[in-house]
Amino acid sequence: INTITPDSLITAEPKKKSDIDTVVYASGSDSLFFFVKEKKMSIYGEGKINYRKSEIKSANIFLDFTKFEIEAVGVPGDSASKETIGTPVLSEDGEVYTGKRMKYNFKTGQGSLAAADTELEGAFYHGAKIKKVATDTYFIEDGVYTTCDDENPHYFFSSPKMKMIQSEELVAEWIWLNFGGVPVP
Q1: pTM metric for this prediction
Q2: Which of 15, 43, 131, 147 suits a disulfide with 61, CB 3.0-4.6 Å?
């Protein structure tokens, strides 16, 4: 009788090298540094990252592939205007989020934006901080909600704490209705 012993090298499952399951495209107008040992990347000057259905644009972008985190920040403009230029813009599934500083976990899809603005289905949101905790759930700190598309809205709801479930509800603690800049509790 001829018995064949399976080769342990053949039957062993291959080790997974990374949890990233697709290609990450990165570009920058100034420079791009990849730190191999630390598994980190820094992009300077009109940085752009594409991962699945997400796109992030910002003056500076920093990636940590071990933590699956992206941090994006703008840079100071000229001394006369004191404005930040190249602020982060996140586009994800047709939704666009802007803010001064962004942290985003590209594995979980969760993230936060400081001094953020976004538009979802004809409604406009602004907050000192917007945190995305699920694909359709957001927490908004010092939030403003309006359907007025004017730069200075004629009417809006405001609250120090909001929870928004997209297309379903907006829950707030101490909400004020504002008409022409006059708050009504």
Answers
A1: 0.68
A2: 43
